[in-house]
Design brief:
about 325 residues; three-stranded antiparallel sheet; 6 helices; about 25% helix; about 20% strand; PDZ; GH2_GIPC; GIPC1/2/3; PDZ domain-containing protein
Length: about 325
Amino acid sequence: LSAMLSDPGPMQNGETMSPQMQDSRNSAGEEGGGAAPSAPPLPPQPPPHGSPPPPARPRLVFHTQLAHGSPTGRIHSFTNVKELYGKIAEVFSISPSEILFCTLNSHKVDMQKLLGGQIGLEDFIFAHVRGETKEVEVTKTEDALGLTITDNGAGYAFIKRIKEGSTIDRLKTVCVGDHIEAINDQSIVGCRHYEVAKMLKEQARGEPFTLRLVEPKKAFDMIGQRTRAPKASEGKMVSGKETLRLRSKGTATVQEVPSEFEEKATKKVDDLLESYMGIRDPELATTIVEAGKDKTNPDDFAEALDSVLGDFAFPDVFLFDVWGAFGDVKNGRV
């Protein structure tokens, strides 16, 4: 099933998505029957600067289901992830806070299909909702727990990867896709993934602490699975010739599928985010690539990155590694 355009006109690349359809007709040009013959007609209003009136913007409609099973619903008129969750919740008469994350074109807890900052215009959206809550006692035996954290863009951090042979890997009740709700009974709902990763990193070795986890509600054919992120590349998370780019700030836009450089560079940056910060975030990686793809030296790149992501305070060594990754991709070394 594919996204449907409610207007047959073409969507222009980069055009923003509007919550309501815009009427391109000029009401002053319509006849108002019954007017007195002596009344002079209103003069036609020329478009500004002599340009033609803008075409009506088509409304993008996406199909969605609850991952554990539901009828198919249709959603539209959202410009960011929080609004997307709100639309899905409205269709299925649930609270937006029930939604942990969404996957594209698969009902399984598949981190290769995770909805990030882009949705292909033909993608089918599956919403994973809250299931069982569980508490796990963890004792660090080494500096790293073996977790990679991401978040859903709406206040929930969850586990995206478990390193084989790590401390967490030995705790068989902890699974990829579990939402981390609290650490030692301290709620972390609303924290960003990098904040959660920092809290976990700061837990002392040899001292037990408690994780309160919420697993996604499972369909019958998913019960008993312990999904682990594969070692292969994350893969493309969009389909079709165009994608809807969701932004945490600003309006969503329809744009071309990322170029080969952007796709490879984003994958490398996402790898570096995991290496330096213990997080994976394709939207953040995409923003970093967009900030640096046109820059000619690392100083300009650092300045551009600071203007859009200054709150992260990335270390200089990370910025130089990202700049080096751009060079590797451009020179065909990746």
